[in-house]
Amino acid sequence: MKDDDAPTSTDSFDDFVRSRSAALLRSAYLLTTDRHAAEDLLQEVLERLYAKWRRARAAPDTYARKIMVNRAIDRWRLRGRRPEATLTDGAGPSAADHADDVATRQAVLGALRALPPRQRAAVVLRYLDDLSEAETAQAMGCSVGAVKSHTARGLTRLRELADLGPVERDALPATGARTSPMIRRIP
């Protein structure tokens, strides 16, 4: 680490981590669709952000999201678009039945897995993280027009998946590309 990149105060970095790590973890989870991979991704993002804190502290959230998108795309490239192995918690069933919530969540994650990396990043940042087109373009390192294109294609693909019947969805590749009518709610 260069001296000019070192944080001048760890308090400001610590405050950023405390205030934004939950939202960044949510974004990482939506990009990776796996809790453990999301935690690893967030850790990488925070390490890189810390190393560049002097430059990033003016707009740390934007800088963190840009790192996150780039690292997530690198991970997708490295694994050849194969889904990462998911680990299960050893926890037993809870008192309340959340089966519908779990099924919906799995359907949304499966639909997101079916999207190419850039489309997934655009949809997650625009509609699930509620960033503007300009903020999304900055985070993805592309133009606003490219964000519009990736978002439109991603939403079209999600709608196509929502319109598939159960038999057709079962014929999709094993990347978990299953979905539910909830996807239709995405604009």
UniProtKB/TrEMBL annotation:
Species this chain originates from: Micromonospora narathiwatensis
Occurrences of domain RNA polymerase sigma factor 70 region 4 type (ranges): 106-158
> Taxonomically, what lineage is the organism?
Bacteria, Bacillati, Actinomycetota, Actinomycetes, Micromonosporales
Which molecular-function annotations from GO does this UniProt entry contain? DNA binding; sigma factor activity
UniProt keywords (A-Z) are: DNA-binding, Sigma factor, Transcription, Transcription regulation
Q: Does the record's keyword annotation contain Mitochondrion? A: no
Which family is this protein grouped under?
Belongs to the sigma-70 factor family. ECF subfamily.
* Protein's UniProt name: RNA polymerase sigma-70 factor, sigma-E family
Please list the GO biological process terms of this entry.
Answer: DNA-templated transcription initiation
InterPro entries on file = RNA_pol_sigma-70-like, RNA_pol_sigma-70_dom, RNA_pol_sigma-E_actinobac, RNA_pol_sigma70_r2, RNA_pol_sigma70_r4_t2, RNA_pol_sigma_r2, RNA_pol_sigma_r3/r4-like, WH-like_DNA-bd_sf
RNA polymerase sigma-70 region domain segment(s): 17-81
Presence of keyword Transit peptide = no
